[in-house]
Amino acid sequence: MEVLELARWQFGITTVYHFLMVPLTIGLSILVAGMQTAWVRTGNERYLKMTKFWGKLLLVNFAMGVVTGIVQEFQFGMNWSAYSRFVGDVFGAPLAMEGLVAFFVESTFLGLWIFGWDRLPKRVHLACVWAFSLATVASAYFILAANSWMQHPVGVEFVDGTPTMNSIWAVLTNNTALAAIPHTVAGTFSVAAAFVVGVSAWQLWRKRQRNVAGKRMVDQDVNDEHQRVWRSSLKLGTWTGVVAFGVLAITGDLQGKLMFEQQPMKMAAAEALCHTEQPASFSILAIGDVADANCENVKTFTVPALLSFLAHNDFTTEVKGIEDLVGQYQERYGSHYPDDPALGELAGQPIDYVPNLPVTYWGFRIMIGFGAISAATGVLALWLTRRDRVPDSKWFPRLALLSIATPFIANSAGWIFTEMGRQPFVVVPNPTGVDGVWMFTAQAVSNVSAGEVWVSLISLTALYAVLGVVEVFLMTKYIRGGVDAVYPPKHPQGDSDSNDHDDTGDSKGDALAFAY
Amino acid sequence: MDLATLWFCIIAAFWLGYLFLEGFDFGVGMLLPVLGRDDTERRVMINTIGPVWDGNEVWLIVAGGAMFAAFPAWYAGLFSGAYLPLLIVLLALIGRGVAFEYRGKIDSARWRRNWDRVIMIGSWIPPMGVGLLLATTVLGLPLDAEGNRVGSAFAAIRWDTILGALAIVGFSLVHGAAFLALKTEGELRERARTLALRILPAALAPLLLLLVLVQSKEGEIWTAFALAAVPVAAAIAFWRLAVGREGQAFAALATVITAAALILFGALYPDVLPSTGDPANSLTVADASSSPYTLTVMSWVAAFGAPAVLVYQSWTYWVFRKRIGTKHIPKVHAPK
């Protein structure tokens, strides 16, 4: 394989992997901050237990998010140095801002939160977890602003062959970014929600199993309080998931409409819409091949006129198909790659403007479908556990645990769709923007040897795989351990629902044990 | 001073912040098997840097990000040019970061021993790689007219850049030992202090050699004064350690690394990445920098962001200012 292909694989692998960790961190950190707020406000120990349990899982996951994020920043310089030189004037700014404004806050206040349990006043300590969790959102904002600029370059002029920033404000309020941010942040909540619902539902069911097995009397004192921990968590998770799905649907529609303007080819590819249609029908599922070359796909289930509505808010407008678009793109951006030796084999070759259709078509459907499944499972879990019920069926915990995976899959599919859908561009031309501000992926890659990229691709993937196994092992261990594993049962208190304003509900000595 | 030069100074300051801060937490990790005789002692050592190491590491991320934003061609040329060393640094940092977080999560001696190894390896390699990268950017790479490396994947690995690697490793080692002497109590403190004294001359020698080399090649008159300050500050560090004033020794070591950064970046300017072949291909501050508009925006961000960072990070050090010892370490509590 050539450097270009290897570098693309590495970017894809490291990005998707990083984005398995990050959404859980962002969503869960806000939920944990909320739990701790509830504890500080009410003094109810149940919320402290929730904070400690979910906080521990948050830490296990956060470590992986951070370390895989460092790779993201450095690989632009390592694998994509031509890209970095071309766009650095614009793209580097949000990246540096992320570091300066968000990362410093995140890492510093997380340290204060972990180690500050018995050293900081309660409210200051609470402020630390909020500073940390809001900084994770700020971090997402800057990164999405940077990514959105690649999808839709704004705030630039073209000077001496490079895009030069003339408005940071335009870059930070790019409409593409403003639509992507709530969508992505809602996606992170949907991940955290499914995680919390899955774990809580399983714990509820497990405790019930024990009680059924005759331990009811023994377990009652401690575990009934634990049951309330899981019940509260489940409720929090479900409502978070439902609201997140609502936001996802609304912002997704908004993003789609923008994409029809900004990257019509991506949306045509998402629908495998080969020929221009008026009105255009929306394809739900395709049976058979979604062919990439000759556009002879077999579509079956379609909703008439829906695509026209999704694209332009009315049911009759024409939606351009791939074939027409290819003509338009060739006219504007050329039909052949330039004769530049840096392009290697691609120099002088015709440009293929059609993204990989099976990936975009199915990526789009998996994103929407799995997102919906995860919200539906949450609602189902809420129904099954109404009024303190817990069904005895094994299906309930299994379904809940399985559905933890669904928003992860939906998120990954969404990103793969977004990034693969913009090929062959790394910086997609803005149809209403400045001429010249776009770049083919093939031109972006570093002038390094394939061997170097092989080494990094293999070593990073292998290390990520090993650490992934370790993370899942640790997560499982702590999930099984439940509250007892993070909160030693040494304060037996008959009814902990009674307001307990004792500052030292958490014993002094355990503060360090919470950490390292 | 024009904006590009200002940003050159800011980036130098970020690198200095990184070397100074992560320097000592690397040192602590490197010394883990040497000074930590049992698990409790190792936990004491790890907990001295526990609340701060992650914040320290962000200085590297911001140094890199600032290079990307302010000098894209520098960022692109150096990071693709020194590809393999940088990759090894990243791999080590990944392992290290996870190791701190995971080490205490399972109550098993084998589990902890394995993660201790990862911490140790993950603390030796990055200062080596960072030293190599810094030496590379100061001493140069073979470059073509586009600013790309010509020559093999190992072009960045030469005797003079290896000297840079040893310099930063040596500094981190002493700095970490002094930090441990400052932050712990009892036997561990004594051992750390003794060790720091014993290794100081040898550990700082490569740094001094590197600085002399750089000074002789590219130095300015004013960097000669900074060079003269290095052995003086090192001697003060030794003396204050010997009399048990670890805080002052730590401050003297901070002076050593500050002087070193002044010399390295002072000698580098006005280049950011010199070409070891045709000097016409050297990347300079002027031709590697972003547009004045971008630099202005970044200056505003830094003007408000950087002081805030300094304030809350200092606050962290204040909150956790107490020395810790084995008696502060609670029993391990982890799921069965």
Automatic annotation (TrEMBL), chain A:
<dbReference type="GO" id="GO:0005886">
    <property type="term" value="C:plasma membrane"/>
</dbReference>
<protein>
    <submittedName>
        <fullName>Cytochrome d ubiquinol oxidase subunit I</fullName>
    </submittedName>
</protein>
<keyword id="KW-0479">Metal-binding</keyword>
<feature type="transmembrane region" description="Helical">
    <location>
        <begin position="453"/>
        <end position="474"/>
    </location>
</feature>
<keyword id="KW-0408">Iron</keyword>
<dbReference type="GO" id="GO:0020037">
    <property type="term" value="F:heme binding"/>
</dbReference>
<keyword id="KW-1133">Transmembrane helix</keyword>
<keyword id="KW-0249">Electron transport</keyword>
<dbReference type="GO" id="GO:0019646">
    <property type="term" value="P:aerobic electron transport chain"/>
</dbReference>
<dbReference type="Pfam" id="PF01654">
    <property type="entry name" value="Cyt_bd_oxida_I"/>
</dbReference>
<feature type="transmembrane region" description="Helical">
    <location>
        <begin position="53"/>
        <end position="71"/>
    </location>
</feature>
<feature type="transmembrane region" description="Helical">
    <location>
        <begin position="185"/>
        <end position="205"/>
    </location>
</feature>
<feature type="transmembrane region" description="Helical">
    <location>
        <begin position="362"/>
        <end position="384"/>
    </location>
</feature>
<keyword id="KW-0813">Transport</keyword>
<dbReference type="GO" id="GO:0046872">
    <property type="term" value="F:metal ion binding"/>
</dbReference>
<keyword id="KW-0472">Membrane</keyword>
<keyword id="KW-0349">Heme</keyword>
<dbReference type="GO" id="GO:0009055">
    <property type="term" value="F:electron transfer activity"/>
</dbReference>
<dbReference type="InterPro" id="IPR002585">
    <property type="entry name" value="Cyt-d_ubiquinol_oxidase_su_1"/>
</dbReference>
<feature type="transmembrane region" description="Helical">
    <location>
        <begin position="20"/>
        <end position="41"/>
    </location>
</feature>
<dbReference type="GO" id="GO:0016682">
    <property type="term" value="F:oxidoreductase activity, acting on diphenols and related substances as donors, oxygen as acceptor"/>
</dbReference>
<feature type="transmembrane region" description="Helical">
    <location>
        <begin position="127"/>
        <end position="150"/>
    </location>
</feature>
From TrEMBL, chain B:
<dbReference type="GO" id="GO:0009055">
    <property type="term" value="F:electron transfer activity"/>
</dbReference>
<dbReference type="InterPro" id="IPR003317">
    <property type="entry name" value="Cyt-d_oxidase_su2"/>
</dbReference>
<keyword id="KW-0812">Transmembrane</keyword>
<comment type="similarity">
    <text>Belongs to the cytochrome ubiquinol oxidase subunit 2 family.</text>
</comment>
<keyword id="KW-0479">Metal-binding</keyword>
<dbReference type="GO" id="GO:0019646">
    <property type="term" value="P:aerobic electron transport chain"/>
</dbReference>
<keyword id="KW-0472">Membrane</keyword>
<keyword id="KW-1003">Cell membrane</keyword>
<keyword id="KW-0249">Electron transport</keyword>
<keyword id="KW-1133">Transmembrane helix</keyword>
<dbReference type="GO" id="GO:0070069">
    <property type="term" value="C:cytochrome complex"/>
</dbReference>
<dbReference type="Pfam" id="PF02322">
    <property type="entry name" value="Cyt_bd_oxida_II"/>
</dbReference>
<dbReference type="GO" id="GO:0046872">
    <property type="term" value="F:metal ion binding"/>
</dbReference>
<dbReference type="GO" id="GO:0016682">
    <property type="term" value="F:oxidoreductase activity, acting on diphenols and related substances as donors, oxygen as acceptor"/>
</dbReference>
<protein>
    <submittedName>
        <fullName>Cytochrome d ubiquinol oxidase subunit II</fullName>
    </submittedName>
</protein>
<keyword id="KW-0408">Iron</keyword>
<dbReference type="GO" id="GO:0005886">
    <property type="term" value="C:plasma membrane"/>
</dbReference>
<keyword id="KW-0813">Transport</keyword>
<keyword id="KW-0349">Heme</keyword>
